[in-house]
Design brief:
two-stranded antiparallel sheet
């Protein structure tokens, strides 16, 4: 069985039942460890010797994960980052299991588990920063409505400052077209 980079720890909890406490096994996702990140780096260097672009993208993503973990440890210590080094592991964790490998996203933020999932097959450092921003917003505001209000306010305040940068403004507008849910566009543009 291939090691996917996702670590599962068993946790036993007691729940009251009709016949008294019952022990149940729960799966608890924990962040990818430093040892696993070193292993992923070594694999990227070895597997992609002839493809420096892919190797450098993966190595940049791993560096960004380390940086995000360090930053989050002080301001949102409960956020977990799981780096998936196979498309299959990422698809299962991100609930994109029905998508083809090429249609998988680069990363996702799961507020239900307070976990950032990174698809190392596709992600770069910008993906890690993007998903980390979602985690920070959620951990700061704890409510989707409040997040959207804050994001819309920030975007409306940033727009005048971006007037001289048509390239960035165009990029943000194009990026927004990727989302059909109007409620998340401002948050996605900021991230």
């Amino acid at each position: 069985q291939e090691d996917t980079g996702e670590v599962q720890e068993s946790e036993v909890s007691e729940e009251e039942g009709d016949a008294g406490p019952v022990l149940q096994e729960k799966e608890k996702t924990v962040s990818t460890t430093e040892d696993k990140l070193r292993e992923m780096e070594a694999n990227a260097r070895k597997q992609h010797r002839r493809n420096p672009t892919k190797r450098n993208r993966k190595l940049a993503a791993i560096r960004a994960v380390r940086s995000a973990m360090q930053s989050l440890s002080g301001i949102a210590p409960d956020v977990k980052i799981v780096v998936h080094d196979t498309a299959e592991s990422y698809a299962k964790a991100s609930e994109e299991i029905k998508r083809s490998k090429q249609d998988l996203s680069k990363g996702t933020w799961d507020p239900a588990t307070n976990t950032i999932h990174i698809n190392l097959d596709k992600a770069g450092s910008r993906t890690v920063a993007h998903e980390t921003f979602h985690a920070l917003l959620f951990n700061r505001f704890k409510d989707e409505g409040k997040i959207q209000v804050a994001a819309e306010k920030l975007i409306s305040e940033l727009r005048p400052a971006l007037r001289g940068n048509s390239k960035l403004t165009s990029y943000l507008d194009e990026f927004a077209t990727r989302y059909s849910d109007q409620d998340v566009i401002s948050e996605e543009q900021l991230a």
